[in-house]
């Protein structure tokens, strides 16, 4: 009976036709064991060895060092269908937690976070709020300066140039107004002289006894009217040039000066605001306000510096242009007036040619564009 036990054990081991041991059962055992071990255990090396019937060890599992976080103990055998189902369930959906704290389950794939749509009403409200705050600060700064309580930034050299420009503008406007009055009166005188010359010429034809006397006076009045028209053309040219200088060139520069003064008021307003915050306590509530005020102050300082530079450049070019324009116009005005009252008709006409002034003949329409071509 003692000899039958090994025979029975050997009989249970399948043998092939060549006399070799059939290890198909060993391979199926190893495959089932690998499936039963979950992938999350993180085993670096796993070797499953099965010895024959004469070995003292059967089903020995050799494993390497364990790496990774420890996992809770799992059952030794897990059905592959349950593992696959759990993996498919995890891969099939992703959990997205928005900023609001609500968990929403979305399909897997690239997630695109769109920006919140801007509300036009809120943007306009924000612009109105910033404009109101800026207007309040600037108004407070202006009132403080007028009451003598606030400080203002002053560029002495630039302010002196601006004051001179404004004073010169008033004087040039006065010259322009007087020149226009002279032109109007001269036009009326020329018109009267022309009518008087026509009356003398008519009487010269009807009065035989005073034919020559009326004729001389008619010629004189007509000559004076002609010279007056030439002088009127020179004066009108002088008026047009000075009007362009005063009401366009100087006015454009003064518009830049107004923008510079507005930038200066804003700069002083935000400078005063920053100084008040710096004098106060520094804590967690005031530090963000100080940083924001510092940022706004720096932005308005850059704007103020830019406008000051623009005003300086425009004043420089304006002075050069003013000297050149007024030099030519004053020479024209002097020569025309002197030649007219000296009775030098040739010199008067030469003055107009020198400055390229063309007179309009009374009673003659301007040429059409076809005739000009």
TrEMBL record:
Pfam families: Arfaptin (PF06456). Residues 153-353 form the AH domain. It comes from the Eukaryota. Signal peptide: none annotated. Residues 1-28 are annotated as: Disordered. InterPro entries: AH/BAR_dom_sf, AH_dom, Arfaptin_fam. Keywords: Coiled coil. Residues 155-182, 290-321 form a coiled coil. The keyword Phosphoprotein does not apply. This is Arfaptin-1 isoform X2. It comes from Equus przewalskii.
